[in-house]
Amino acid sequence: IEGFAMVPQYIFCYREHGTRDWGAGLYVISLGSYRVFYALNWIYKKYQMPHYSDIQSWIGGIIEILFFADFLSYRFTGNSWLRSMVLTVDTKINEISDKVELKVLGTSRTERMATEGGEIRRRRKLDEQPMEDV
């Protein structure tokens, strides 16, 4: 599970490509860099202590490093081989969540937010203006 811990931050950065939110991007780059240095530490330990083995951490670390490499590729070149898959899975999860809420509660999150007078916490498109407080 550790290997997928950063996926929500990647989703946020993938969806907000045009705005270039440097706070989230810096956070993701910092944690990804930490994981790369941690992997270098594993390599050093394995070299120094041949009996050293931590398969679970290695698998999680490799998954995180692959996501991080894809993120860096997307951030700096605009090419990503995981972006479409991650965003598709996120969209499907949101759709399923809305359907379950509709069946269980009788209303969806969107309908409840509209009746409570609150702002819907979905991402706005770049060309939309923020809602004004009344």
List the helices and strands and how they pair.
Elements: H1 7-15, H2 22-48, H3 55-77, H4 83-105, H5 109-116
Helix pairs in contact: 1-4, 2-3
Question: How is this structure best described in words?
Answer:
The chain has 134 residues and is mostly helical. It is 67% helix and 0% strand. It contains five helices and no strands. The protein has helices at 7-15, 22-48, 55-77, 83-105, 109-116. The protein is extended and about 60 Å long.
Task: Please sum up the structure shown.
The protein is mainly α. The protein has helices at residues 7-15, 22-48, 55-77, 83-105, 109-116.
Q: What low-confidence regions span 5 or more consecutive residues with pLDDT below 50?
A: none
Count of β-strands: 0
Largest sheet: none
Strand content: under 5%
Nearest-integer average pLDDT? 76
| Secondary structure: helix percent | 55-70%
- Helix and strand content put the structural class at mainly alpha
Helical stretch tally = 5
The value of Rg in angstroms is: 20 Å
The shape, in one word, is extended
Distance between the termini: 43 Å
Question: Topology as H/E string?
Answer: HHHHH
